Amino acid sequence: MRLAFLGVGHWHAAMHAEAARTAGAEVAAAWDPAPDAARTFTEKFGCAAATSLEAALAGADLAVVMGRPFEIAERGLSVIEAGVPLLIEKPIGISAAAADALIAAAARKGVFVAMALPHVLGMMAALRDLDAAGRLGPISHSHFRLINGPPQRYVDDGVGWVLERAIGGGGALRNLGIHGVNAFLTLAGEQEVSVVSASFGRPIHGTDVEDYAAVVLRAADGTLGLIEAGYTFASMKRGIFEWRVTAKNATLSDFGDRIALSTLDDEGQRDLPVTPPARRYDDVMADTLKRLAEGRPPAVSLADSRRAMAIIDQCYAMQGA
């Protein structure tokens, strides 16, 4: 498949391109309104530099859409209207409503749109396997913790706008917490989910956005989920990734480098294979290309993303942010 990369000044651009190569796809064309960003990308991946978004889409089987949130919304809509399938970065806009035009256009045009939310794939697959084998039981609670290093990393990467509330739509919760919120909503399925509490930590980095957020969600059946997101780990190179789901018969813990499974039925613990966080965009790309080729819906849809964004909107409203 031929892939077009739009908005390659985004800090995930190289990860998406490397994932495409790993999946056997062609990095065919790249475009960015900033010529230097486009040049850096095309030199690294040996693809054509397009003079416009429209030109980049010519002959593309899939577009990877990146950029600032408002740009992602605008570019995504343009790609959908052109009838080209796409894999789109988060967040789409700075509120849930920004996705409405894309959802309507995708339905009208019948265009495949997948969201780039990678962490949910491995754990949900493991949970489905346990459930299918009758070894899971009802879920009691879950905990999704993603704490990265100081927000200076975004300044160093040339995307300091992430730290401007008016552009990024918030801080750690909008940028990182969406992964955990989406994971809990995936567990909840079609159930109604409410925000029990949302708290922001003490600001320690002096930016316009929150450094840390802790959110508690409750599904209609009583299942609880705790989401932690932050820029507060004391390292520019490392962070904390811990996702845990606890059910009647099983506890599944994703530590990034491994998934530990404990069960009551055999009183044992074993590690399951998992893709390290830095390479999980490989999984998203491979899954997206496979689903597109097979005519199946995406693992994480626009509607899924909108639902997670709406929860995050509620959290900010509760904080008066």
In short:
By secondary structure, this protein is of the alpha/beta class. The chain contains eleven helices and 14 strands. Helix 1 packs across helix 10 (about 280-295) and helix 9 (about 170-190) crosses helix 11 (about 300-320).
Overview features:
alpha/beta, 24% strand, Rossmann fold, 321 residues, 2 domains
How is this structure best described in words?
By secondary structure, this protein is α/β, with parallel strands linked by helices. It has eleven helices and 14 strands. The chain folds into two domains: 110 residues, 3-Layer(aba) Sandwich (Rossmann fold), CATH 3.40.50; 176 residues, Dihydrodipicolinate Reductase, domain 2 (2-Layer Sandwich). Helix content is 37%, strand content 24%. The strands form two sheets. The chain has an eight-stranded mixed β-sheet with strand order 8-9-10-7-11-12-13-14, covered by helices on one side. Strands 3-2-1-4-5-6 form a six-stranded parallel β-sheet, with helices on both faces. Helix 2 links the parallel strand 2 and strand 3. Helix 9 packs across helix 11. It is globular, with a radius of gyration of 19 Å.
